[in-house]
Amino acid sequence: MKAIITGCLILLFFIPAKAQTNFYKISAGGGFGVTQSFTDLKKHAFGLAGYGVIDYYFSPFISAGLEGQVGQINGGDVKTDAAGRQFINSYKAFNLNTKFGLGTLIDFRQGGFTNTIKGLYLGAGIGAVMNSVNNVRNSSAEQENPYPGTDKSTDLVVPINLGINFYFPDRSGYCRYILNFNYQSSLTLGEGLDGYDNSSVNFKTGNADIYTYFSLGMRYQFGSIGLANKTLF
Known about the structure:
By secondary structure, the protein is mostly beta strands. The chain has one domain: Beta Barrel (Porin). It is built from three helices and eight strands. It is elongated.
């Protein structure tokens, strides 16, 4: 019997043990950033926007969440645009999205560069943008080359996210705070972003409207505890 017990202990000694860690499954936070428009108007101006987000984590590096944005998307120039077009869109947007982090795929336990980039992620989602556009049109340009459109509209939007998280522990050593940098490119399925629809001269709707959003934010993690095979610290 002693020989069996001794043999089992020796076997356990040589079996590699995987590091495990607890992580909070929910995070909430917000931040602010800069938008840029890419519509049919040639001038791609900048605007300011804020956001709030809540995420559920299936693992420390895989999440799904809900994001809301409020701010402005601007473009065009009444003085320089050939048709005298300009817009200021005081928009609101909501989307459901998922994110997949690099830390799921790489071994960052040795520290160094891999540990720095473990928070890199790629994500995608679907949502809606509610447009409230103030269009500025030159009256003479309107008569020669009118561009109809609506000031109030709602379009479907497909956001693509590329970003990085930096993790900070609390006094107990658990990841509690996340510093986030995110670049989002959102393709809208409609013509409402700039308020200009098809031209009554050439009857073309132009290219799809896109806006980008670069943001800085903070997240706070809380809620139920999960167990992962990789430790964050």
